[in-house]
Design goal:
The complex is a heterodimer.
Chain A (H helix, E strand, L loop, with lengths): L9 E12 L6 E12 L3 E5 L6 H9 L6 E10 L2 E2 L5 H7 L4 E4 L3 H4 L6 H13 L3 H14 L5 H4 L9 H13 L5 E5 L7 H18 L2 E6 L2 H7 L2 E6 L2 E7 H6 L4 H9 L47 E4 L2 E3 L4 H4 L4
Parallel strand pairs in A: 3-8, 3-9, 6-7, 7-8
Antiparallel strand pairs in A: 1-2, 1-4, 4-5, 9-10, 10-12, 11-12
Helix pairs in contact in A: 4-5, 4-7, 5-7, 7-8
Chain B lengths: L3 E13 L9 E13 L3 E5 L6 H9 L6 E6 L2 E2 L5 H10 E4 L13 H11 L5 H14 L16 H13 L5 E5 L7 H18 L2 E6 L2 H7 L2 E6 L2 E7 H6 L4 H9 L12
Parallel strand pairs in B: 3-8, 3-9, 6-7, 7-8
Antiparallel strand pairs in B: 1-2, 1-4, 4-5, 9-10
Classes of the chains: A alpha/beta, B alpha/beta.
Chain lengths: ~325, ~270
Amino acid sequence: MKIEANKRSSTLEIENLSVAFGQGSKSAVVVDNISLKIGKGEIVGLIGESGSGKTVASLAVLGMLPRGAKVVQGSIKLTNDPLLERTDDYRRSIRGDRIALIPQDALRSLNPTGKVGYQVGEPLNLHRSASWAFARSKAIELLRSVNLSDPELRSEEYPHQFSGGMQQRAMIAMGLSTEPELLIADEPTTALDVTVQAQVLDLLRAVRDQHDTSILFITHDLGVVANLCDRVYVMYSGAIVEEGPVDQIFSNPSHPYTQGLLDATPRIHGAMTGLTPIPGQIPLPNKRPVGCRFSDRCLFALPQCASTPKPITVGDNHISYCLRVKELGGSS
Amino acid sequence: MTDLLLEVENATKAYRVGNHIFNKKQFMAVNDVSLTLRAGQTLGIVGESGSGKSTLLRMILGLIKPTSGNIYVRKKNIWRSSGRDLLAIRRQMQAVFQDPASSFNPRQSVATVLLAPLEVHNIGDKKMRMMKVAETLELVGLPTNYMDRYLHQLSGGQRQRVAIARAIILRPSLLLADEPTSALDVSVQAQILALLKTINRELGLACVFVSHNLGVVRTIADRVAVMRSGVIVETGQTQEVFDQPKNAYTQALLSAVPDPSKIHMARV
């Protein structure tokens, strides 16, 4: 059943990861037995609506789970380095060095009292023991590489003097400073206007092409995924329901949830037939239906859907966790 | 020919920038905008942040006073009316805002929220009001036993349904919606858009729908106005504007939207 996701070596390998909040009978499993792989130089999209567990999964990779959350099973490997077996100090030392995070809200993530140039160069000083003079000159170079005009001048300014797009570009520059193996981008364009978003996406593509950086792109926007990613994982209520190459996910969506998301996404082209909403809402972690957790909102659900979903191969590296995929396939 | 419900005539809102008394520099948030809306029609206003779309909507709502220009609802100038007249106009138009979490008092029950407009406008007796609340809840697709729930107990989509219920309980003729779905997930967003469409049709509501999301506006609006830097740069039938945009900015905006039907080729 298991499929080699990629011939290239994996930068990130998550296997059977579960994360729970709370303890004992009151615990809520927010990430439930997910496996995910990112090859070198690959941009992988993790799609899911709020409450699907996508952000918690990324925090587990970073080792930044909030208080009360715990990894209950599984492994996370960063280029064969088993992160979950490492100490907190070790994991802190690779954060901002081998793994960088580009958060959704750049302004809240930048220090309002520090000059942008200082903050962009800081990881070099911290992780690579670079001198401040070197870090500063490198910061200017990085700011130029993310298409910020006048980087010498701008590096002396404070975050509040930057526009939203410029702040996000500064965050990306900071993330790139140590040339990390893995860049985790958590909804980095959600707060931006579409024209600015297009620039940021172009920039991420260029980063991958130039440095062979692996990127985990977390989003709820299917349009962005179609434009940027090589492979896609679709998450629903803590579990992965479908995974595959981007063209297959969009041309042959093989899980009713993926299909539902596509039908509910407003388009700017094509027939003006209106949208088809998915009825109901995402269940709370302790109120999930037995078996397939989408079954209570699914139009195709059968009594058999109460059994644990198993991976079913529908194409090259394309896996669906829908029991009825073979019957329903091709109808899309 | 249906009658003109809303007329915006050369509406302008200027803010003074800088605090020096001799500094007469002005920032034109909305600059000489005119538009009309017929009963039952939906007008979508799209633009990026800072384009003036929300300022325009707030002027129509009567929350921001225009620096110059006039706004008429059913031929009545909303900024020249007062007292009883103004109350009557306000009853005609209701608003739904972006964040359903912050547009309610979390300590109020759904019934309290929905009764408030009826009490303000002194409509019916207690029994009739409760009936109206139940009827409106049904209309927005919420079970009537939700009346006793508190708003913090509801999900984002349900809260937005309550916001819509509050807006339509007075049976207004004009609904002003400012990014009503941008805080919601796509599956829930589609539910709310479908609901707004049905309600607009069933109640014959006219709607001004402001959003930065072009896809959303395309699904709901009959006509579209594209705003940039306080000016309407293009306006027309929705299909026309989206399929054959004439203005360079509209074209740029449309081409920047990532479309799920345009898949990039994966790197092998």
